[in-house]
Write a structure and sequence with these properties.
The structure holds two protein chains of two kinds. Chain A has 13 helices and twelve strands. Chain A is of the alpha/beta class. Chain A has two domains: 135 residues, Alpha-Beta Complex (Aspartate Aminotransferase, domain 1); 238 residues, 3-Layer(aba) Sandwich (Aspartate Aminotransferase, domain 2). A seven-stranded mixed β-sheet of chain A has the order 2-8-7-6-5-3-4, with helices on both faces. In chain A, strands 9-10-12 form a three-stranded antiparallel β-sheet, with no helix packed on it. In chain A, helix 1 packs antiparallel against helix 8 and helix 2 packs parallel to helix 8. The longest helix of chain A is centred in the last third of the chain and has 25 residues. By secondary structure, chain B is α/β, with parallel strands linked by helices. Chain B has twelve helices and twelve strands. The longest helix of chain B is centred in the middle third of the chain and has 36 residues. Classes of the chains: A alpha/beta, B alpha/beta.
């Protein structure tokens, strides 16, 4: 099997597992316990907090560990709306379901604006300006890099603009982390979400980085862990794994990006040779590992099934929305027609992928596209 | 014998090596690391199969349907989801909730939050043995009561609440019944087909599974509705969104499976060790067992050593890891609110130690613990003026202390 679905989840790096192992075996104490074993666990969490903070150039006291990116996004949105009694919410039209659904939850009680994107998936700055320059302070939640198209928004520029109008800015950096350099302080955002399992760490752990000037209300109460922002016994092993994954991501960022970019260019160059293929958001700045493409006229689901039979693991969009048969909301927001959207396939490379795997994929893809097209012609 | 001796199994348990071994099969590239929500490839399907098998294992221990299990990040989240979930879903029916003063902070702090949102909460006083009097519970019920939340086994004193009888009462009144079973699962038999509990919280790390993992049982017949607290993606049938942490889920499944197999024999062994520990202290002066003597979970022994400050004793017992109460409140130096609610005075509440025994405790551990606890208690009492006064026959409760 060839795995090209790293935006859905990444395997745990062997060094990360090695770091986690002691906490899956001998070091099991509850970090809230005052005895010596408890204090050892507490120190391990503190170290991981430093490592995660360093990945995004934040201070460790700004990092709140959560059970994952979805919880971080929920805490950012619900926590700040409730904590600061905000009556307004602005999100992008291509946000992750955890942001969209958390926003929808407040549909009745807040004023919700959904910002359009252009045909490349980029937030239109003029629209943002127009919406944000009037009215009450809002929570603005915009993702740094899109999970489907890989489009990278200019969050720094956007945040600078929004801060002038006293808005609170949250960015979902789950897909961006480890693929682009993130500087929390320089970005000027108030809240930033991270997930471990997208950067070769374990599932079930994430973080919300919080600028201490703002008040957020906790979502989970009881026990007062994470300075009362997030109660519940800390998942020590996973947090330690997250820390190590963050350290590796920071340390190897440049080399990783070069490697992924090389694979992406190699892939896209060959992809263009295939008849009828379009790459979504091709003109936009994108993550170095993500290619979202379509072959209008071909049914994406049929193609996915065939690719799976041939041992290629890719997807038609977000894993978090994959139980639905709707075409990608990201592509629809970009104004892509439904036929093209229904043919969409997302490829997301990871560090262990090779050009030989890409060659094999292209070879299979070519045959499958031809087969499905000829079947379609016969049926007609 | 390995030092320090760990007697803090109610705070957390070491992972069973069988659990750790299974979890490691769901992490790395050469293993099964997929996202179970990926519906388009084998990596995703394999992960989904593993999640299904674990759901069955958890359901089996408590005799529930796997469809009634919702994965969470731990019992604290389960308690939050159950209580807020019911309150927010049924608030039009009523805004009154009943709980008890000795519940875990995850329940109490959640109820406090709901009070801020306009709900009305009754906090019942337990009896001196730590149990809730069912008659007093019934008296507290009102027309607008929507939820009763009581724990099965108390985390500090280990007493077992009669949730079967309470379930009959709540069902007859049409009130939803939530039970925090974080401390009881795997230690006390639970048959949800038999008892009328509507929502039940579980934790993996209290029964030799991983931290950061829990579940909420949500009854289907009669159907209980809850409002999701975490949105996005609609995982767990819309009740709890977020990528499923497969290795953790698999670990919880395995831990519950082992518990089902071994609970009966394990309980016997642990009970013997616990009784041995208590017998080792029993002839000491001025010691008090906290919580009901009979109706308690096998691994728990909560003792107040009068005239000894609990925190000092913990520090003195370097080779034995115990706690003076719940780990979740151990950052504060307040005496245990659970013991206070049981009617213990400040002195006794301050001098309490919770010993919690588990799967990997040996007889040797217990012998050594008895020896050093006796030694240290004696030593600390020798340093205590109060103890000297007590020995001289002075009734300390009658003394008026001068402020200075």
């Amino acid at each position: 099997m060839i795995y090209f679905d790293h935006n859905a989840s990444t395997p745990v790096h062997p060094d990360v597992l090695a770091e986690m192992m002691p906490y899956l075996q001998g070091c099991y104490a509850n970090p809230s316990s005052v005895h010596q074993q408890g204090r050892v666990a507490r120190e391990a969490i503190n170290k991981a907090r430093e490592q995660v903070a360093e990945l995004v150039n934040a201070h460790s006291s700004q990092v709140i560990f959560t059970s994952g990116g979805s919880e971080a996004n929920n805490l950012a949105i619900k926590g700040s709306i409730r904590g600061m009694s905000l009556s307004r919410l602005i999100i992008g039209s291509t946000e992750h379901p955890s942001v969209r659904d958390a926003a929808k939850y407040f549909a009745a009680s807040t004023n919700l604006d959904v910002l359009p994107v252009d045909a490349q998936g980029v937030i239109k700055f003029d629209d943002l300006s127009r919406v944000s320059s009037t009215g009450a302070p809002a929570l603005v939640s915009l993702m740094m890099a899109n999970n489907e198209t890989g489009v990278v928004q200019d969050i720094e520029k956007i945040a600078r603009h929004l801060q002038n109008d006293a808005h609170i800015v949250h960015t979902d950096a789950v897909q961006a982390a480890g693929k682009i350099n993130i500087n929390f302080t320089q970005l000027n955002v108030n809240l930033l979400s991270l997930s471990a399992h997208k950067i070769y760490g374990p599932k079930g752990v994430g973080a919300l980085v919080v600028d201490k000037r703002i008040d957020i209300e906790p979502m989970i109460h009881g026990g007062g862990q994470e300075k009362k922002w997030r109660s519940g016994t800390e998942n020590v092993a996973a947090i330690v794994g997250f820390g190590k994954a963050a350290e590796l991501a920071k340390l190897n960022l440049k080399g990783n990006v070069e490697k992924l970019k090389d694979l992406q260019q190699y892939f896209e160059c060959q992809l263009h040779q295939l008849q009828g293929v379009i790459i979504f958001s091709e003109q936009a700045e994108r993550l170095s590992n993500t290619t979202f493409f379509g072959v209008p006229g071909i049914d994406g689901e049929t193609l996915l099934m065939q690719l799976d039979v041939q041992g290629i693991a890719v997807t038609s969009g977000s894993a978090c929305a994959s139980t639905s048969l709707m075409p990608s909301h990201v592509l629809i927001a970009m104004g892509i027609n439904e036929q093209a959207a229904r043919s969409a396939i997302r490829v997301s490379f990871g560090l262990q992928n090779t050009k030989a795997e890409i060659d094999q994929f292209i070879y299979i893809l070519k045959i499958q596209i031809e087969m499905i097209s000829s079947l379609a012609i016969m049926e007609n | 014998m390995k030092l320090p001796i760990y007697l803090d199994y109610s705070a957390t348990t070491p992972m069973d090596p069988r659990v750790a071994k299974k979890m490691c099969q769901y992490l790395t590239l050469d293993q099964n690391f997929g996202n179970p929500a990926s519906r388009s490839h084998e990596f995703g399907w394999n992960a989904d199969d593993a999640v299904k098998a674990a759901r069955q294992q958890v359901a089996d221990l408590i005799n529930a349907d796997p469809k009634e299990i919702v994965w969470t990040s731990g019992a604290t989240e389960s308690d939050n989801l159950a209580i807020k979930g019911v309150a927010h879903f049924y608030h039009k029916k009523g805004k009154h909730i009943i709980t008890c003063k000795t519940e875990h902070k995850a329940v109490l702090d959640t109820c406090r939050q709901l009070e801020r949102e306009g709900f009305d909460v009754t906090y019942l006083d337990p009896e001196v043995n730590g149990l809730v009097d069912i008659k007093k519970l019934e008296e507290a019920m009102r027309e607008d009561t929507i939820l009763v939340s009581l724990m099965h086994v108390n985390n500090e004193v280990g007493v077992i609440q009669d949730i079967k009888a309470i379930g009959e009462l709540t069902r007859s009144k049409g009130i939803i019944f939530h039970v925090d079973a974080a401390q009881s699962a795997g230690k006390v038999p639970i048959d949800l087909n038999e008892i009328k509990v509507d929502l039940m919280s579980f934790s993996a790390h209290k029964i030799y599974g991983p931290k950061g993992m829990g579940a909420l049982y949500v009854r289907r017949k009669p159907r209980i509705r809850i409002e999701a607290q975490m949105h996005g993606g609609g995982h767990e049938r819309g009740m709890r969104s977020g990528t499923l942490a497969v290795h953790q889920i698999v670990g919880m499944g395995e831990a519950f499976h082992i518990a089902k197999q071994e609970m009966a024999t394990e309980n016997e062994r642990i009970r013997m060790l616990r009784d041995k520990l208590w017998n080792g202290f029993e002839d000491m002066e001025e010691i008090y067992l906290n919580g009901d003597e009979e109706c308690r979970v096998t691994g728990n022994l909560n003792v107040s050593f009068n005239f000894v400050e609990g925190e000092s004793l913990i520090m003195a017992l370097k080779d034995v890891a115990v706690s003076s109460g719940s780990a979740c409140t151990s950052a504060s130096l307040e005496p245990s609110y659970v013991l206070r609610a049981l009617g213990r005075n400040d002195e006794l509440a301050h001098s309490s130690i919770r010993f919690s025994i588990g799967r990997f405790t040996t007889e040797e551990d217990i012998d050594h613990t008895i020896k050093i606890v006796r030694e240290k208690v004696e030593k600390l009492r020798d340093l205590s003026v109060l103890w000297e006064m007590h020995k001289d026959g002075i009734d300390l409760s009658k003394i008026e202390w001068a402020a200075h």
